[in-house]
């Protein structure tokens, strides 16, 4: 069994990848999360001419997938990790050069994004690290255009084990906060299992005006 201090360090690398180990973990997550990425992009229902923001973009795989499939959209990616932003920049270099994509190193609790400028916000496997759910949702509400949508994908269990803490947080904190901020049609969607992990997402949209 690994020492507790090493386990904590490994967990911190998943939250904020750093250095060569962080780069390796970023690429490992690209391979591991293909099912969640594909399903989440389907939920976004991306239309021509829209702008998409990914919170916690990691090594930029979801961004690259969207840019390849939708040649007339703009995609923004935000991550706190410089290491992982560098990987995302390499993966999306051509789209960044043509200004179809851009990357921001920053905190999802304080988005450096213009008000009402985004059509779709999505995030995959970051919800576990949100320090303040209401603050992040407030920022999402601020940057979304009228009738904009969000998809926040996470896992709530593996195999026969249910992760009650994350489920209770979504039910008791996330959904009430989203409704209070004025989001409509807030609901939990069940997705496909990935490596025996149970994939789910909270979705919602802003009002028309």
UniProtKB/TrEMBL annotation:
<dbReference type="GO" id="GO:0008168">
    <property type="term" value="F:methyltransferase activity"/>
</dbReference>
<dbReference type="InterPro" id="IPR029063">
    <property type="entry name" value="SAM-dependent_MTases_sf"/>
</dbReference>
<dbReference type="GO" id="GO:0032259">
    <property type="term" value="P:methylation"/>
</dbReference>
<dbReference type="InterPro" id="IPR050447">
    <property type="entry name" value="Erg6_SMT_methyltransf"/>
</dbReference>
<keyword id="KW-0489">Methyltransferase</keyword>
<dbReference type="Pfam" id="PF13847">
    <property type="entry name" value="Methyltransf_31"/>
</dbReference>
<dbReference type="InterPro" id="IPR025714">
    <property type="entry name" value="Methyltranfer_dom"/>
</dbReference>
<protein>
    <submittedName>
        <fullName>Class I SAM-dependent methyltransferase</fullName>
    </submittedName>
</protein>
<keyword id="KW-0808">Transferase</keyword>
<feature type="domain" description="Methyltransferase">
    <location>
        <begin position="47"/>
        <end position="160"/>
    </location>
</feature>
């Amino acid at each position: 069994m690994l020492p507790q201090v090493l386990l904590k360090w490994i967990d911190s690398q998943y939250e904020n990848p750093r250095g060569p180990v962080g780069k390796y973990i970023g690429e490992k997550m690209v391979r591991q999360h293909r099912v969640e990425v594909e399903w989440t992009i389907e939920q976004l229902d991306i239309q021509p001419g829209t702008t998409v923001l990914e919170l916690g973009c990691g090594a930029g795989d979801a961004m690259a997938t969207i840019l390849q499939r939708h040649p007339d959209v703009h995609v923004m990616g935000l991550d706190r990790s410089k290491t992982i932003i560098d990987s995302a920049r390499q993966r999306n270099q051509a789209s960044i050069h043509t200004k179809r994509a851009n990357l921001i190193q920053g905190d999802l609790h304080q988005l450096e994004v213009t008000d009402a400028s985004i059509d779709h916000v999505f995030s995959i496997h970051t919800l576990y690290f949100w320090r303040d759910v209401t603050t992040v949702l407030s920022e999402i509400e601020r940057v979304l255009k009228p009738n904009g949508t969000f998809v926040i994908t996470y896992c709530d269990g593996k195999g026969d084990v249910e992760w009650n803490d994350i489920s209770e947080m979504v039910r008791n904190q996330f959904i009430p906060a989203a409704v209070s901020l004025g989001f409509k049609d807030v609901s939990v969607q069940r997705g496909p299992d990935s490596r025996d992990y149970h994939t789910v997402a909270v979705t919602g949209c802003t009002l028309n005006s």
